[in-house]
Specification:
The chain is an alpha+beta fold and about 230 residues long. It has four helices and seven strands, in the order E-H-H-H-E-E-E-E-E-E-H. It has a seven-stranded antiparallel β-sheet.
């Protein structure tokens, strides 16, 4: 499977810009709430039972499970009844925020990455549409995205033949808004086959060359003194 990412300059309308900013704001709130939930759970398990303070420590019952992606995704669905503003954003977009947070915690343990940080409105700059639907969503210089509708973009280069658009990411930069399309092609790239004549290199070749050079200089100098 071959995957490519093409980036295009987006030309959203005023209504689409408002929707993009609203989506980024909701993604930031979901990220911060989910991160705080995980951080509180970890802090409640970090102290000894006989040393916890009832006023300053995080007290969470033992029966409460670790807030991983599955648990937080279920809580997000239930939270929409209490917070109707969550319904104004595509559900899959918010789920991708929780998936990204899950990946950040996995990388922290396996790759030694830093602890995930809270985000302000300047640090949350993109969101992902993981599915674009089965109907037609591309035409000329437009792409149809959930809740945004048909979005104009500058088609600086055509999409390669044989590739299928799998997901779209909206990115906010200092120079404007961009749409990044993830393309996939069912193509296996074979490993290059070794060919030609083998060449062996001596790692000490440079050291030996310098050593032999100094030997030659000292020999010539010694012969010159004897001749003098």
């Amino acid at each position: 499977m071959l995957t490519l990412t093409y980036e295009y300059k987006a030309k959203p309308t005023k209504e689409q810009i408002q929707m993009i900013e609203h989506t980024l704001d909701m993604c930031r709130k979901v990220w911060n709430f989910a991160l705080r939930e995980r951080k509180d759970w970890l802090n409640s398990r970090s102290c000894q039972v006989n040393a916890c303070s009832l006023t300053s420590e995080y007290i969470i019952p033992v029966s409460v499970p670790y807030p991983n992606y599955n648990n937080q995704a279920k809580s997000l669905t239930l939270a929409k009844e209490q917070y109707p503003e969550l319904k104004t954003v595509n559900a899959q977009v918010l789920q991708q925020v929780l998936r990204k947070l899950e990946t950040a915690f996995i990388d922290m343990k396996r790759k030694g990455m830093g602890f995930p940080r809270f985000k302000n409105r300047y640090r949350m700059r993109s969101f992902v549409y993981p599915q674009l639907g089965k109907s037609e969503f591309l035409r000329d210089n437009q792409i149809k995205l959930p809740q945004l509708g048909w979005l104009w973009y500058v088609k600086s280069r055509p999409l390669p033949d044989g590739f299928v658009v799998k997901q779209a990411r909206i990115v906010r930069k200092a120079s404007g808004y961009f749409v990044m399309l993830t393309l996939e092609c069912d193509l296996n790239v074979p490993n290059p086959v070794a060919s030609g004549h083998p060449v062996g290199l001596d790692l000490g070749l440079e050291v030996r060359f310098v050593h032999s050079k100094w030997v030659a200089i000292l020999r010539d100098e010694w012969q010159g003194r004897r001749g003098g």
